[in-house]
Structures are given as structure tokens and as C-alpha cells.
Predict the 3D structure of the following.
Amino acid sequence: MTADTANQENASRDRIEQTILSAAEQVFSPHGYRGASLQAIADQAKLPKANILYYMGSKQALYVRLLNRMMNRWNAVLEDITEDSDPGQVLSDFIRTKMMLGQRYPEGSKLFAAEILAGAPFLKEYLSGELKEWVASRAVIIRQWSQQGKMDDVDPRWLIFLIWSATQHYTEYSAQVTGILGEEALSEADLASICQFLEHVILKGCGITSSNATSH
Amino acid sequence: MTADTANQENASRDRIEQTILSAAEQVFSPHGYRGASLQAIADQAKLPKANILYYMGSKQALYVRLLNRMMNRWNAVLEDITEDSDPGQVLSDFIRTKMMLGQRYPEGSKLFAAEILAGAPFLKEYLSGELKEWVASRAVIIRQWSQQGKMDDVDPRWLIFLIWSATQHYTEYSAQVTGILGEEALSEADLASICQFLEHVILKGCGITSSNATSH
DNA sequence: AACATTGTTGACCGATCGGTCAAAACAATC
DNA sequence: GATTGTTTTGACCGATCGGTCAACAATGTT
């Protein structure tokens, strides 16, 4: 096997794996790791149970793969900010991006939520390693914004948690939200209204005077 | 059996039921309904499995009882507000009360979260009935505050969701929060700091000029 | 003391759990 | 077309699932 054969590897295998991953995400996300069964995943994927194990090795390996896939989707957020960035612009983008990611990958988001709820048995080291460092490094920059007088002197960690929680709420608690609103699902108008609200409250609440009103 | 014998009913039975409920809450909360087993609950309660079923009837009945117990704990919140109330005072109380409830009943809160995450199969009608009406009635009053110029004209529903999500985050995502902070659990100082932050951002963000600074 | 009621629990039920395995089907190479 | 390697899948394994039941202990009641 030469060095680059792995690149153009069997495409049919990839397609099947994607089918399985997608099915698994739908089964794991509402019920968590323990509440999901391989048989249910197999039914969802319309494949024999033994076939799932042939491709994924074990329930745990499949689950961990899903977690990693979801985390990769979040990598871009808040990545390229500096002390010279405009807080209003950055936080607006942050809110909208997080909101959009939740809408785009609802199952993946719920999967992640269930994992945290269960005490993060498979993500403990990621949270206290990579993610902790990520938050710490973002916090440094936000602190600089405060010192420059661009915004109030708030704890950056609580601010990040606030934006995370406020946006995630609409995917992970979608059953509650839609129940209360009396709608089947959130409309585009709802989403726009929510984004606008969150921007208004959080930016204003942090003492950020909207520099340039981005048209929406 | 006369009409009121049920009042001073067997106290030993109550004690055992509380033991079981407490054990069940600890087992259900991280794993959800499907992820929990009666055997695990029995082990936690240090009782034979058959004994659990003798007192609770079935897994489902036990689970529903836990949900109801948790919901009763929330009943007092935001209950006695009028159009003449002070928004700053009310929202401050709301934030602090919600935060306190999450700290007081972490398992119950997580249980509720897991139920919603699973699509709220046992709470659908509560959400779209009682709770929907509750939110609607609170929204009317908040709208009046806006019209009186006491606060910005924000959508009360999004405001309620914001406070719910921001406060619940610290109990339901406690594994993530503590992992990122590098602490075993949230300290009292952390909690006070978080409450202060949320008050600051949300009240200011809603255009509420803190009437009387309550000392903390 | 005799009896009825309530509480306790090990043994057991069919169903399902995650996972293994071997036989058959398929694909690729020579 | 025989050989080799890869997929596919039903059958099966021991463990565990929620729940039932009958035998038994404990606790009133009279």
C-alpha cells in the first residue's frame, strides 16, 4: 500500500459509514449513550445489526466517532479574533453562528448535550484540556477589550457561557420551546427575531454601543 | 376507612418512598428514562428490586412521579407580579431564584432536562398546556412594563427563555462548566459572581435602570 | 391465640441488550 | 475459472432489561 492510497479509498464504504453515522446520531441524540440500542440504530439505517458492528467495531467506538464529528463542526467559531477586533461585530457573529450551528446540526447538538448531562464520561479530558484552553485564550482577548473601554468589565467566562446557553437552548429544548409557542418548529421569522433579541440584550448588557448597524 | 385517614397515613411508608424517589432521581437524572434501570435504582436505594416495584408500581409511574415532584418545586416563581411591579426587582429575583433552584435540586433539574431532550414524551401536554399559559400570562405583564417605558420593547418570550437557559446552564452543564473552570464544583463566590453578571447584562440589556441597588 | 392485612424478597419470565462467529455472497486478481 | 480478500447476515451467546409471583415475615385487629 503506497502512501496515498488512503485518499481515494473505497467510496462505497464511506457512503455506508455516513449512513450509519447519520442513523446513529438520530438514535443517540434523544436518549443518550445508554438509552440508545444498536438494534434501533440498525433499524434506522435499514441495515442488519451485525453490519453496524462490522463497520464501527463497537457501540462505544461509534458513539465517540459521533462526538468527534460534532466537535469538529464547532472549530471555526471565535477562532480569529484579536485585541483589535470590534466586540460588537465579534459577539454578533458569535451569536448568529452558534444559533445557526444548532439549527444545522440539531441531532449532533443534542447528542453533545446528553453527553454533558450524563457527566461527560467520554469528554472529560476534552473539556478540561482543549476546550478549557480555548476559553482561557478567548477570555484574555475579551478582557483586553474591557480594558480598552470597548465594553463593560464583565467576566468573559460567564459571557461565553451565556451565549452558549442562550443559543443552545433553542435546539436542545426545542420540545419545550415549540410546545410553549404552539408551533411545530421554529420559523425563520422566529429565528431572526431571537437573534435580534439576543444581540440587543447581550451587546447592550455588556455596554457595547453597536458600532455599525449590520442590516438584517 | 373514613375520609381523613389518608392524612396521618403510615409514616414508615412515606420514608421508604422518599428513599426510593431520591435514589431514582440520582439514577434517572444523568441517563434519562431509557438509560436508567430499575436494578440500578434498587442498588442506589439499597433495596431489592421487587421492593421498588411494590411501592411504585412500574418504572414509568416512578418516573412520572419524579417529574411531578420537580415541577411542583417551580410553582412559586414569578407568580405574584403585576403591571405595577418593578421590572428590575422582579427580574433580579427571577434570576436568583432560578439559579438557587438549580443548585438546590441539581438531579431534579437534570431529570427535567433529559426529559425535554428526549422530546418530552411524558411532558408534552404540560408544556403546551399549563406552562404555555403561564408564559403567556407573564408575557402580558412584561409587555405592559415595556409600554410604560419601564424597559425596552423586547419579546417577553425570548426574555423568559434567556433567563431559563442562562441559569439552567450551570446545573445541567455542570460537567462542562467545572471542567472548563478547573474546579470540582462551583464555589459560593462563583455563584455570586454569576448572579451579578447575569443581573447586570440582562437588566441593562433590557434597558432597565437599576432602581434600588440591592446590597449583596 | 387466631386471623387478616401489609410488607419483603428470591426466583423466575420473555424480551432485549452488546457483541461474536461462521457460513454464504460478492469482488478483485492472476 | 480458481484463488484470495472483503461484505453481508442469520444464528447465537451470556448478561441484563422491566415485570410477575408465590412463599414468607411482620404487623395489626379482634
In short: Chain B has a mean pLDDT of 93. Chain B touches chain A through 57 residues (CB under 8 Å). DSSP finds ten helices and no strands in chain B. Residues 63 and 153 of chain B are 40 Å apart (CA to CA).
